Each structure stands twice: as structure tokens, then as C-alpha cells.
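Researcher: Good morning. I'm working through a list of sequences from a screen, and I'd like to move beyond sequence-only analysis. For each chain I'm collecting a predicted structure so we can compare shapes side by side. This is the next one on the list. No need for commentary yet; just the structure.
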Amino acid sequence: MTFKIEIPKIFKTVNFSEFAEEFGEQSLDIWVNIPKKLIDERNALIIQGNAVKETLGKLVKAKEPDLEKIEAVKQEYLKVDDQMVSWYTNVWYMNGEPLSEEEVKELHKAAIENDPAFLDWIVGKTFELMKEHRDYRKN
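Model: Good morning. C-alpha cells for this chain:
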């Protein structure tokens, strides 16, 4: 006999009305027990994005900015941003289905245009719930 345990995906719902009651019933389900591989991927994207931002900052502050290099680094940053969007398609769900890249981009765009604090809040809430789930001192 072989011991086999199947670990299900565990979701926690984030009601947007926690941010502002005007959101009404809108919500997202967050996959909170993501595998280490996904955690490592996000950490690598953050490190990569920070490095690109730092490079861009240095290029822009140069006495004679190289516009071609600046544009190339901006494109590199957009590529990292697209990879981050793709990452969130793995953890943000609605009605039992993961959001598509288009849906994540739309959420991002709507938040940036209308209320950037909302995007910060939903990302923060995502990792708060993941951390809460991973707390080994659960009751």
C-alpha cells in the first residue's frame, strides 16, 4: 500500500467592499496555498523589476542620456510587467476560474486610472491571505 495525499487548492475570498463599500458584492478568490515554485517565480520577477528600475534611473540621470538605451530598458520593464500580470493569472480566480491575462490587465488599468490605492490594496490583501494561510501556528 502506498500512502498518497492530495492537497487541494485552497481559496480565500476578498470582498472589494472591504476596501470601499461602493464596490458592493464584487470579489476575487485568492489561491492561498500556491506551490513554492510560484513564490520563487514572483520573487525573481520582483528582483528583476527592481534591477531594471535601478538601471533606468541611472540612465535617465546621466549627463547625456542615451535615449536608445532608455527605450530598450523601458521595453525590458514592460516585459517584466507582462510576466507579473501572467503570474497573477495563476492566483486570482473568479467563479472558480483563474482570471485571464486580459482580465488582470483590465483590473490593473482600471485601478491605475481610477484608484491606484485599490491595486495596492488587492495585491497586499493577496499576500496577507497567503501569509495567514502559511502561518504554521494555526488554531
